[in-house]
Write a structure and sequence with these properties.
globular; 38% helix; Rossmann fold; six-stranded parallel β-sheet; alpha/beta; single chain
Length: 361
Amino acid sequence: MAGIKVAYYGIFSGTSGYATGARAYVHALHEAGIELSLVDLTFTEEVENDLVAGLLRRKMVPDFHLVHAYPPMAVDPLALYFPSSKVISVTVWETDVLPARWRETLGQVSDVWVPSEFNRVVFERELHRPVFRWPRPFDSRLNAAEADDSRLPTLGSGTYVFFSTFAWQDRKCPLGIVEAFLKAFRGSEDVALVLKTNGTRGVDVPARIADVRALTGSSARIEVMDETWTLAQMEALSRRGDCYVSLHRGEGWCNPLFDAACRGKAIVATGCSGPADFLDPDDHFLVRFTEVSVEQDGPFFDRRMRWAQPDIEQAAEFMRIAFENRESTNERAAAVGRRLRERHTLSSIGRLARERLSALM
């Protein structure tokens, strides 16, 4: 069907998961021939992407209002303003139970789109309706054209770099990553852990890491970069890092982990939730886990929910294996990266969306 018009509401600037995912989806929809008008929910004028910048506030009468955000942020007012229009929620969640408010909000929309099979199962069970799985695309052209290494710590050319990027919160298990690394390495090896994070306000990160060092007796190098970076600075870390580590407790997708896997990086990650869609148990190091109750505070979390407790000892073992067998590990990861890039092209992901929209028309 030709001439499908979509108003896409999202966050298009910055390095957050919602922003990087939205930019990628916009390119996929554009590749599929969908006519787009974009509304940035942060009302920013600064978007480091020519296609996205050119589509902001474009005038059109849309067939669909596609809202890429936590549902209560934007779906509620859209349903009020456009009661007879087709409103689609594109969202993601990290546990086995949806927040109560989400169920109410998502009952108002025409369709719900989530990236992973884990999310599809949870949302369908909670909402009692079919949910569309729309995986994330990958295209190297969506990355920063140049890398700015001005914020990277000084690393030797032979230093093996474990790296991870996240907002500092219990769901990301940051101290678990630190503990696994310090258990794997004593300090005599040419290896470093680089954590690019934000949101550590109120958390004495150096003191927390010192406590873990005292327990492990390790002096292995850890660099925590708690600051805002540009896309080019993030690109520098993605290129320099050797092995991406994600001991997540729950993810709907996890863009930085997906990006690293598509680039052919070695991966040590919890083998649960959304990333199971793209991580290969034969060629990535998937850490076993047990299910525990969620204890993280936040507007959407509660104690009814459950997520993963990764096995820190096994994570440490995997990090050591990746380091000691880097050549064979890198070869396997590179092969997986090629397969992922072939499976998650802009055209293939855009075609899925076009087929769904055509059916909804």
